[in-house]
Every structure is written in structure tokens, then in C-alpha cells.
Amino acid sequence: MASRVPLQLVLNRIKSLRCFGTVTEGIASSTASSRHLIGLEHDYSAHNYHPVPVVFSHGKGSTIWDPEGNKYLDFLAAYSAVNQGHCHPKIMKALIEQAQTLTLSSRAFYNDKFPVFAEYLTKLFGYDMVLPMNTGAEGVETALKLARKWGYEKKRIPKDQAIIVSCCGCFHGRTMGAISMSCDNDATRGFWPLLPGQLKVDFGDEAALKKVFEEKGEHIAGFLFEPIQGEAGVIIPPDGYLKAVRELCSKHNILMIADEIQSGIARSGRMLACDWEGVRPDVVILGKALGGGVIPVSAVLADKDVMLCIQPGEHGSTFRGNPLASAVGIASLQVIQDEKLAERSAEMGEELRQLLTKTQQRFPEIVMEIRGKGLFNAVELTSKSLFPATAYDLCIKLKERGILAKPTHNATIRLTPPLSISLDEIREGAKAFHDVLEHDLPKLVKEKPKPASPKARDTCDRCGRELYG
């Protein structure tokens, strides 16, 4: 019974909260309430997430409705999986038409959709070949295997000595391979032993990367990085860093592997975040928005010299390259191109940051930094000014005002709405954030019980550094 107490507090809060969204006639579900559905998930699903207590029942564009018909603006877009907007009609049309024809062949046979998708995707991004997968994490695992295989076959790294370099603060998924590169104690503790063959450098530190390449370059197969770190808090590297990475990887014959799962497909205001510096990685990993928010689709892009290191029987997945995913992938990319969502992301992102900067100027003791590119943005808050409240508490207050966002760490709020969002909706979201700081935060700081002593900052198990506040 004790384990149910936190849930009960959440459910009571949902019942008593005033919702700032509007109830839309005909949208409300008659089958189950938000309270009941949250209770069911708590009872029957693993507790590996800490959601904001709102239930998605219906979505269109940037708008979400819960079972009661309350309306919200989505400022997370499923971590960039819904760049095109919820239930985009062109993507839904492709999904429905293909679902009525053929959904799965497995790669034991050919199908009539994947070859078309493969040609479209590779020509769009300028690579020779694609290896399709389903989820982003699978894409990362694929790139890791591909880099190791290339390292042994082409670079002639001695057997079992291949190294992958990645960055402190990185997030590449929750598989064993991905967490073996992580600085997130929650992701690694209790899952040891981690996979060997991993080295870390600071993100954005050209000198550190140069040093490790000079010392270990003969054994390094690849450098895996996010051009903009998402889970770390939308961390943008210094100007010129991506070009320096390209030069160092070329000099030391190391694969430059860009994880563009979240930063790619127009999120940053370019088709790929690497396009901001005009660099071409050796390997690109795509996911999330590649499936248009309706089905998992991921892909690894590379040229033949790299991709053909993997031969039949060495890697695969039953569902990869399936006709349904291929049809959706084509439609998802066409929407990005036809609606010029990369350009729109750049324009709307600039407007959002300008509005948020005005709020920062109004509350300089609370808002430490506004950062982002395109509609890939974060607000970093001052922990001392928030205490005992957290960024999660502010997201709850944003939810009450009809805006859905999610924190990353205790003092950072990520703001990544669908790229189709309107200017009026951008303004509505920015105003809600201002109002939360002006009206809600003072009450939170005053009324929220303070712990007996502030929680000590954790340190990373692998590098010993203080982790994000």
C-alpha cells in the first residue's frame, strides 16, 4: 500500500487542478477518465518513466486533447518524433493505404516499398546506402557494430581492440551498448558490467578530442556524437567544433558518426544539425521524425566503403525495412520538404528565443540561459532560485496553463514543439512560461516542503564529475 501513496497524490492533484485548456465538444472520450487510465498504467506497466500527469487521447498538429476534452499545446513533440505535427493527413493517408495492402514481408523477401524508400532517403541526404532499423536505439547499435566491423576489416585494428569514442553528457538510448557510453548514473547503475571499448571526451572540446585521437587513434574505429546534445539539455557546441571533428576524423582515419536521431530531419532549422557547419559525417543515424510520429522508423546512412562491411547474416531485424514503415518514411520526408519545415523551424525558433529572452530579462535571477537552434530549445534555470521546486514542478504548472513540456535534469526545461506550430501558438507557450515564473513559482517556493537538507549533487560513476543540477 505504501508504494501507492505517490500515485494517489498525483491522482488527487489531477482531480483538483484547474485546467487552463478549453473543453472541445465531441473530443472528450466516454470510455475512461484520465485518473483511471493513469491508475491502470501504474498498476500494469513497468515504472521506468516519470510522466507529467496528462493523458493524450486525441492529437492534431500542435494540439492535444485528454479524455475529458481539455486542450493543450504540445511543446515536446515526443522528443522530436512528431516534427510534422500529430496525425499529419498526408502521413496518415500513406499509413492507411499501405496498411490495407501489405504491412510486413521481413527481409527474407523483397517488397515493393523499401527499395523506393532506400533510393529516396539516400539521394535526399547524399549517401550511397542505407541500413534500415526500427527504433533510434537500434540505429545506434547498428552504427556501433558497423564501426567495429569497418575498424577490423578496413582499418586493420587488432582483434578485440576496437574503441568507440563518445562524449560526456551524451544520450544514445537505453540499450547495453548505448548506456556503456553514458554518464547517466540512473542508466548505468545496476546494469553492470558495461561493454568495454569505450572512451569519453568532453562535448565541444576540440583539444580533448585531438589528444585522445593522437594517443589512441590506431585503435579508434569511430567517434559517436550528437551535433546538439538533447538529453543533456540542448547543449550546442562552440562554432567550428563540427568542422574540427571532421578534420580530426579524416586525419586519423576514424569514422565520424553523427547521431541525428533527435537533432535531424529539420529540428534544428536545417535538415541535419551538421549542416550548420557544412560537414558530412561518414555515418548518420536517423530516427524519430523519420516515422512521422505514427510508426518507429530508423536508418543508418553511409557510403559503400563502410556499409558493405556488413554482410548477410551479420545484422538484421524482422521488421526493418517493412513496407508500412517504408511508405510512412517516404511520406514523412516529403512533408518536411513540401512544407519547408526546416526553414519554418529556423524562423519559429528565432521568435521563440526572442520571447523567452524577454522573460529572462524580467527574471534574471531565475532564468540562467536560453539556448537553441531552430525549434530545438532549452531554458536553464537557477537551481538556487527554484529550490525547493524543480523544473518538473514548473512543467506541472505549465500543464495547468495548457502547455506540455518536459524537464531534463532538475533545472532545465526542453521546448521542442512540432515544426508546424503557428506563431500564435509560439506566443501562447512563451506567455505561459512567463506567467508560471511570475505567478506560480513564488507559491511553489513558499509552499513546497523543503527537505531536511538539500540533496548533494551526484557524481558520474565513470568520470567522477559532478552531474547536471
From TrEMBL:
One of its GO terms (molecular function) is ornithine aminotransferase activity. SUPFAM superfamilies: PLP-dependent transferases (SSF53383). Its cofactor is pyridoxal 5'-phosphate. Pfam families: Aminotran_3 (PF00202). Pathway: Amino-acid biosynthesis; L-proline biosynthesis; L-glutamate 5-semialdehyde from L-ornithine: step 1/1. Its EC number is 2.6.1.13. GO terms for biological process: L-arginine catabolic process to L-glutamate; L-arginine catabolic process to proline via ornithine; L-proline biosynthetic process. It catalyses: a 2-oxocarboxylate + L-ornithine = L-glutamate 5-semialdehyde + an L-alpha-amino acid. Keywords: Aminotransferase, Pyridoxal phosphate, Transferase. The keyword DNA-binding does not apply. GO terms for cellular component: cytoplasm. Belongs to the class-III pyridoxal-phosphate-dependent aminotransferase family. This is Ornithine aminotransferase. It comes from Helianthus tuberosus.
